[in-house]
Structure formats: C-alpha cells, structure tokens
Amino acid sequence: EGIGEALSTACDNYRLKLVRLKDNAEGLDHLSGYGGLPSAIAIRDKFQQKAVGGGDNPDDNAVKRLEQHIELAELMRDTYLAAIGRLRSADQDTGTQLTNTGEGLR
Fold first, then answer.
1. Residue/partner pairs of 23-27 with CB below 8 Å, 24 or more apart
2. How many CB atoms lie within 10 A of CB 47?
3. pLDDT by residue, tens only, the chain of 106 residues
4. Which pTM value belongs to this model?
5. CA torsion, points 27, 28, 30, 33, in degrees to nearest 10?
6. How does DSSP assign 44-60, residue by residue?
C-alpha cells in the first residue's frame, strides 16, 4: 500500500509540475524583442510555433507535448490508485475467508 500511494503521489506531483510548465509555455504565444528584420521575425514566429503551435503540424509544439505528458501522468496515477484499491479488496476478502474458516473449526 505504502509504495502504491507514494507512486500515486509522485505522479500527481509530476502532473502539477507539467501543468505549470504548460501554463508557462502558453505565455510564449506573443514574443517580442526580436526586431523588425525579416530573419528576426521568421525566428520569432518559429519559436512561437514551437511553443504553442500554428505551424505546419499543429501537434508539434511544447503545449501539446506537455498535455500528452500530463495525460500519461494522470493515467499512471489512476492505475496506481486502482491497483491499491484491488489490493485492499483482496486483503479484505482474504481476511474474511480466514475468519470464516476459523469459525468453522470451532
């Protein structure tokens, strides 16, 4: 139980860090300070696209990748919690069976 709960907590902490990173990446949709040269504007646009999308591949950006990692962390956390629940249920069932067996021996 302790290990499963620790893993679940670690996944949730990781998920929260990823959410903060995603929030930060979303703030990179309008970059400034690159100047007015065409090459500077092109670099700025490329960086913005890598942060939040808008390029040829709308899934090739930091926000989408972080969202995918958030989903994975949530799935892992939920899997650990489900496993803990099953273990507790199995322990309870085993305890009940042993109690019933013991009472039948009297």
1. 25/51, 25/52, 25/61, 25/62, 25/63, 25/66, 26/51, 26/52, 26/63
2. 13
3. 688 889 999 999 999 999 999 999 999 999 999 999 999 999 999 999 999 987 788 888 999 999 999 999 999 999 988 888 766 666 666 666 666 666 666 6
4. 0.74
5. 120
6. HHHHHHHHH--SSSTT-
